[in-house]
Amino acid sequence: LALEAAAGSTACSELALWMRKRAQKYIEKNEKEDADIDETATKAVDDDDDETENDVDKGIGENCDACVTSTSDSTDVLTYEQKRDELVEQNKLELFKFDAMTKEMNLAQTSPEYRDRIAARVELVETHRNRIKELALKQTLNDTSKVDGSDLDPSGDGVTSKLLPMQSSCATIYEICKLLLRQCLHSGLYDGGVIVVRSLLNYLQERVLRYEAKHERQQNSIDQLLGGGPQAEFAHDQMNDASDESDDENSIIFLSDDEDLEEPGVLQSLKCGMLPIDIKTMYSLCLLGAGGQDYVALNNLESTLLSNQQEMFDEEQSTNEESYGDEHNWIAFKKQFASPLDKTSMVVIIADVIKESPPGLSSRRILGIFSSHLKAIDHNDGLDDILSGPSGLLRANLLKILLAAAKLTIRCDALDIKKLYQPGVNEAEVAKSVVADVIQTLTTLTRFQHIMWNPNSFDCSLKGVSVETLSILCEALDVLVKTMDLVKHGVKSDTFDVAVMMSRYLVSTMFQAGSPPAKPGAPIEHDTWKTFPLPNEWQTDFERKLSLKAYNLCVACCVSAFSGWEKEEFSVDKLRSRDDEANFFGVAFANRRVVGFLSEEIISSISQQWQRVQTMLPNLESLDFETHLDRRKEAGWYQKIIDSAAQQRGNVSTFGEDDGIKSLLSFSMLCLITADAKKNQRSQGDFLNLSMSILLPITQFIIDKHVWTSNIGAETKNEKDEVEFYLDKNYQWLGQTKTTKVVQFQSAPKPTVREPPQQQRQKQKAISSQIPKPSAARRSPRISNLIKVPTSVLLDEWSKDESAKQSNAAEAERAMKKLDSAMKTLRKSRTLNALEQSSLDVSAALIDVAATEECYNPFLCLQQAAMYAELGSKLGSNDEPFKKCIPSKDKCTPLEALVILGRADCLRAIHFLQEAQYLCSWVISVCRLHRDRQETTFLWDDRWRVIGVLCYITKATIDQSGEALYNNNKSALILRKWEDGAHEEANRGKSDALILVGTGSGEVECEMPQVEVAAYDSIATPGNDLFMLNESQNEDGRGSQNENELVAGSFDFNQLGELPVPVIEDVQMDGEYGGIQVVGI
Question: Cα–Cα distance between 926 and 923 in angstroms, integer?
């Protein structure tokens, strides 16, 4: 501890003891959690039915059980090393079981489930480390407790007598205390902050005693010198001896501020325990958070705010903190930590202290601090100007104070409402005060709504400030409804009307319903409403948008990937990927309607409102809400959904949708109360329409009853089948979701429109002025002068040498089963990440099939392997499936060389160009040895001639791919320079290609049509033959298709240089899937 090292162990003894107790509680808590985790893991292993894993676990478990059994009878005498070794073995076993389970799950490496699994593994490893640390800490505490009694402090608290003396000045201690107090306030450790200040006061008292003892020794020496004696002439020697032989260690430590204590008033201030203004302020905040001394703390805070010892706020705060307020907790602490402690920062800390605490007797006094501070800033600088200014930190602090003041006001009003149930209370005065506070809160939200309410227009998400604003509105409307419902008389109707109109304005703004109609429409005869379903023709555009928002909010409370603040009606196309852990889809399609569930609090509010509607509309058919709800709860899917929702780790309603529904229901009740109080039939009907626009869609969503004729909430686009297909048994959505990142795709070419000659000349002149110089223009990569060798020609040449075949039926069967399994997994892929990972698995499996002599056409396998690799994710760790051991050059067979070239082409397809270049260079070097006539041990045959042709083609494609990738991204890796022998061997392979296709050089030398490459992925697009790299086109632009030649059509590339995501439709097959029919063995 820095404070103990600077101030001494005696002053910090209470702080050290407090920290020891916290460490012991932390250890006990972790031990309990680890025991629960171990018990759960043991049950999971016992229930596992996988035979292979059980066999492995059984072998390890027996060894572990034997070890535990041998030491179970002597647990008390185990040494620290034995306990540590046993713990390490236990951790290894848990980690092995976790990895085995992960491997069995076979998750895609880019899927959210795989990332969750990796995060869980990291957390498990961290838990293992903490166990070892706690064991070491226990050993240290035990060793400390076993120290000889002569070395212990007389207090008996287990602290050794070799204490640290004070070694730093008061200024250093003050700085350390400031840092500790800030950290305690941020972490909510208010008791620790109080103990820090007590340690500081103990240090100050020790400094006083140290100074007085030193001063007394000096005075005694002077008195002895002046008094004379037989050895007076040697008085200076006696003084030094007294100093050297002193038992007080502090007397020989010189502190830098010892001489400052000589100044008048300094010693007295230390005796009185006077603290600097910032430490005193933070001490008061810690007292306020710890509780029990609120009166003293608030007195100190109020005196500090009224004084001129601190600035109102720092005017030189950074102007680059635009995103402040929604970042990680520790990032926000870092920014606050670096800022000076001014009055605004002090009030912000007060807001943080009372944020989670319930209102009490001092709440109104704290509310006065907030109000006076905001009024002072608004009077001097203007809140609107500051909130719109460049300082992000100051804006965030003021927003925090505004929201804290509004929330505390509403919670104090909720506490005052309870007084209405007490006898002898003036209901009119209480209600008047509560309504005035609610109006003031609504006025604040209205004034600063452009700062507090900012939904993201792209993904319809809400930031932390907006979510908190919505929560305040929810509480304010709830308090207003309770007050109006309890107090029938005593409050002016004008006051209630103002509150209702302000609520209506905020609801229309925050719930994106637009402006209410300026002129009321035709009156609705509500007496004609007799049976369900009710009509919906009476709805205005404002009321229709309100119903849509109520329905979307209901769905968002059950579907984690959907935002209730979407402007359009819910559909599976509106689902978006989120960063949180929740993945839940809790709605169902029944009777052509979307139904779900809501919380008990919301259900109770709806039931009460229907009872009030029944009294206002006596001719309407009775809606037995409770009976319909009980019938829904008895359904099997309802119970399963509730159980699955309880197991969610994250919050399903990510953006405060539950508070949004509560706000709408409170506004609906407010409209019903107002309509009941109105005598004007038109006004009564308008408020009743508003209430029914909210109540009807929510009711239909909960009880699945056709209560009105609106199409809001009706099943559309045959979504039921799609949901059932993409939903698993735990109600997790496995289908596609929209990404939260903005990706702009290149638009399709616009149709050609013939323009007048004059406009054409003007446009050509403008374009010619913008054409860059030839040196600056980017050269478009092209594929030209490549020999087109059909796969059938290569297969015929390859099959001539039958003596090289070495059959291995077992290996071929294993490879085919692996490929069959990979293809089945690919067909089951429901997400883009799963599709990419499965495509790489299929590519690797095809290479394994091509590596067997039983493969009928290895060239077709390698071609399709490159095609499937094209669909996989680029870079990262996606090269792992293609990493294999390379044989020695003297033992490399033509088939092994062919497979290595296939892996090189797959690596090229996923942007591992340097790895592909290495493999190609290695095969070229082997091919040169076989072509060299002086090398008698290396034979040259028909198969090696095919390898030479493929070396030429693979090298050319790698070069062209590297050029295309570099032109698209200048920061991409540059290919290494090929060896001279590689160019020579490539030319020889080109000559062999000419011989195989049987064409003259004149036919090949003529340049073929150039293919513009917009990005790297266009080098080997799905559909291209691996060995037919030029694209022959007819004059009309359509590709030609010859025998054994696959010619790719035109593809539209986006701005990232990637192909659009392929849409894979599910193929309905008759009977069971009979395996892949791609290659034959």
Answer: 5
